[in-house]
Write a structure and sequence with these properties.
four-stranded antiparallel β-sheet, 3 domains, Pdz3 Domain, six-stranded mixed β-sheet, globular, 2-enoyl-CoA Hydratase, Chain A, domain 1
Amino acid sequence: MARSETVQGGGTSPAFFLRYLFLPALLMSLVISGCQSPRKASGGLSEEDRAKYVTSFDHVFETVRDTHWDPEVVGDSWHSAARELRPRIEQAESRGEAVSILQELLGRLELSHYGILPRSYYSSFEAPTPEEKETEDPGSAPKGRGGDAGLDLRVIEGEAVIFRVPGDGAAAAVGLAKGWVIESVAEESLATVIDKIQTLMSESSQLELIVTSVIEERLIGDPGDHIQIVARDGEGELHKIDLVLGEPLGKRVTFGNLPPFNLVYEGYLIDETVAYIRLSSFFNPMDVMPWFQRQIEEMGDVRGFIIDLRGNPGGISLMACGIAGWFFEDEGHDLGKMKTRQLELKFFINPRLGAYKGPLALLVDGSSASTSEFLAAGLQDLRRARIFGSRTAGAALPSIIERLPSGDGFQYAVANYFSVSGRILEGKGVEPDEAITLDRGSLGAGRDPVLEAAVRWITEQD
């Protein structure tokens, strides 16, 4: 029973565009071109908007050239890519095509945290232009304005399996449950989509992040939208379900040049002896950090703490330093460093009076990225936490997001990250101390093997 407040939530759409951003642009271009769900044809691009995209192209090229931490990476090959692709954007016939060319340019870097957030993502809080009212251009990106399917998915043995179903969400309302397989969405086989991506990206550390993002793209839209799905229950029976997207769960937040999205944070006790905390992303520090402090103060007499970062795509890096501080009383520790072209900056931990000294476990998976990886790697290197689950995404670069003249968002990395022990996480991820694979049977029985392993480890400590 919990002694702390909970901001409940979960589901697909609020965090989808965050995961989309943190993926390498080249991989997402391949996925979108080969595995995107059917869309209406894009409309024409006016001369004025085409000029904005050319200006945006030049800005993207120059920004990466001037800010990448390794000048050799943005040397001859980067200039050659710009010379090759600029004529194409000068002739682009739609926003979708122009965005694809920008993604292709950034994809030549083969790094995470470089990408374009198409302007359609901002439609949830910006009024459409007259041109947009007349001509829909969904080909530029997955579209949706906050409708929530009320479930989280993971790929298990090539199938889209329901991992989490909040009790007050849209999925629960139609009887969907943990361990069920989503066979198809709008008559499109998800197994086929998954197989395509796994074939294309078999060597990528971001495979799980990519697959999950592309699958969940099928389940976004406006609140009230109907999505036809076929699901298979634990007994193998198929169910045709009309899933009506609900209002997004959790707390609505905004940050910088990101569109509004929903944040979930919850805390409660397991068997009255272990504290459990989950964060869906690292944002909204004015609310989350005081809330986290209350969890420590109210549940600080437990045998151990668990922080669940599964599915957390990252966010504000310095929040990891603040959270880590609640598990250190002494100074002189850091979570690693970032290296720009000009300098190095350490992520110093802010120690707190009354910090929790007992066992600490972190839960991660292939959809844990960026700030989640900074926190996990740092605490692992410092031997302050034990990591449970599966390898993280290896999408670990500090970045900035700005708006382009075209109206699209532009994310670019400003540094490389090195853990305390000197590990580079980009493209590699964090290997857990105890690797655990999810299975349908356990989920269908209401169990969580990763969480159970963490609880078991904590209760075995002196």
